[in-house]
Specification:
The radius of gyration is 22 Å and the shape is globular. 21% of the residues lie in helices and 32% in strands. The chain has two domains: 115 residues, 3-layer Sandwich (Rieske Iron-sulfur Protein), CATH 2.102.10; 198 residues, Naphthalene 1,2-dioxygenase Alpha Subunit, Chain A, domain 1, CATH 3.90.380. With 350 residues, the protein is an alpha+beta fold. Helix 1 crosses helix 6. The strands form four sheets. A seven-stranded antiparallel sheet has the order 12-18-17-16-15-14-13, with helices on one face. The structure holds FE2/S2 (inorganic) cluster and fe (ii) ion (FE2). It holds the Pfam family Rieske. This is Rieske 2Fe-2S domain-containing protein. Keywords: 2Fe-2S, Iron, Iron-sulfur, Metal-binding, Oxidoreductase. It comes from Hyphococcus aureus.
């Protein structure tokens, strides 16, 4: 399994990290505990007490410290043990790994690589609940599958036609047309016009529109997409490039942020939000969209977990790429290149 380590991984929705309630999550196979102090500061440590390896996530917050509730070792935010009950001397080895952690766009992000390289500028520009332009809902699903299979799914929307025939109702358009695909520094951009379509949001079949959608799939596995419906002929006016102005949309402008986090080799957590632009909807529409998303993402989960089960029964899995795999291959190659660069830096430093 290949991962980019020098990247921010989504570990939780901000709203799910309650004050003084430590949260446990495996990230890239490492047990991590994250907690928020009364003051609001967050910290992330290896979730494994140095004493007898109990999970610190069962611990108690004390000020900005965390106490293991097995035998009482007290941990500072940097992972050092600052108190061992009944013992005056604290050995230098009494510490656990600490991770750079930050909160942005309503997600808690953990940096899994070299702490000296943790750069907040590398956090993907998701849209959080603090953005006044969107009315969002949120959720997450746990997968019994390798994260890469979910990334592959998100880099090839031709599956919408089949997997989501009963939810997004994408029609044949997604399977029969290719998106425009462009390489980004740390990701791949997929965009497309579907012209003269009724569109899932159409009020009647004779109200044809040009539907635009564009998403970036970014390292380590974050999808940011906005969509909108424009008057028929608008795509041509834009020479089939991006809309000149978001305000030109006649309806249906929405934004979704999604993140795929590898927990262990074959388990992953998939976070998602979706909702309308304030000019194009309200809480009621948000709830409808979230209902559709919940159904659609459950469809992906069913397919991908079943795919994982077959992969597990296959001695040497081989794939037969199709034309729609272009973006999948681009993203996987980017992951391989960045991971390789990290390994060569690590090797030369060793
Ligand atoms: S296992 Fe944590 S104090 Fe003993
Ligand atoms: Fe899907």
């Amino acid at each position: 399994m290949i991962y980019v380590r020098n990247a921010w991984y989504v570990a939780a929705w901000t709203q799910d990290l309650e004050v003084e309630k430590p949260l446990a999550i495996d990230l890239l196979g490492e047990p991590v505990v994250i907690w928020r102090s009364q003051r609001g500061d967050i910290a992330a440590l290896e979730n494994r007490c140095v004493h007898r390896l109990a999970p610190l996530s069962l611990g108690r917050c004390e000020g900005d410290k965390l106490r293991c509730m097995y035998h009482g070792f007290l941990y500072s935010r940097d992972g050092h043990v600052s108190e061992i009950p009944g013992q005056d001397v604290i050995p230098a080895s009494a510490k656990v790994k600490s991770y750079p952690v930050t909160e942005k766009h309503s997600w808690i992000w953990v940096w899994m690589g070299d702490p000296d390289k943790a750069d907040e500028a590398l956090i993907p520009p998701a849209v959080g609940f603090d953005d006044p332009n969107y009315i969002l809902g949120r959720g997450h699903f746990d997968y019994a599958a390798e994260a890469r299979l979910i990334s592959d799914n998100l880099c090839d929307f031709s599956h919408l036609t089949y997997v989501h025939a009963n939810s997004f109702g994408a029609g044949d358009d997604f399977a029969k047309t290719a998106p425009n695909i462009a390489a980004l520094d740390r990701g791949v951009r997929f965009s497309r016009w579907i012209t003269g379509t009724a569109g899932p949001a159409a009020r009647s079949n004779d109200e044809l529109i040009d539907a635009w959608s564009s998403y970036d799939y970014l390292i380590p596995g974050v999808l940011l997409m906005w969509s909108g419906s424009f008057k028929r002929g608008y795509a041509e006016e834009c020479k089939y490039g991006p809309p000149q102005d978001l305000d030109d949309a006649i309806r249906g402008v929405t934004f979704t942020s999604q993140a795929v986090t590898p927990m262990t080799e074959k388990t992953s957590r998939y976070f998602f939000s979706w909702g309308p632009h304030v000019k194009h909807g309200d809480e009621a529409l948000r709830d409808i969209l979230m209902g559709v998303a919940g159904q659609a993402f459950a469809e992906d989960k069913t397919m991908i977990e079943a795919q994982q089960a077959i992969l597990d029964k296959t001695e040497t899995p081989r794939v037969l790429p199709s034309a729609h795999d272009r973006g999948v291959v681009m993203f996987n190659k980017l992951v391989e290149r960045l991971a390789k660069e990290e390994r060569s830096v690590d090797a030369s430093a060793a």
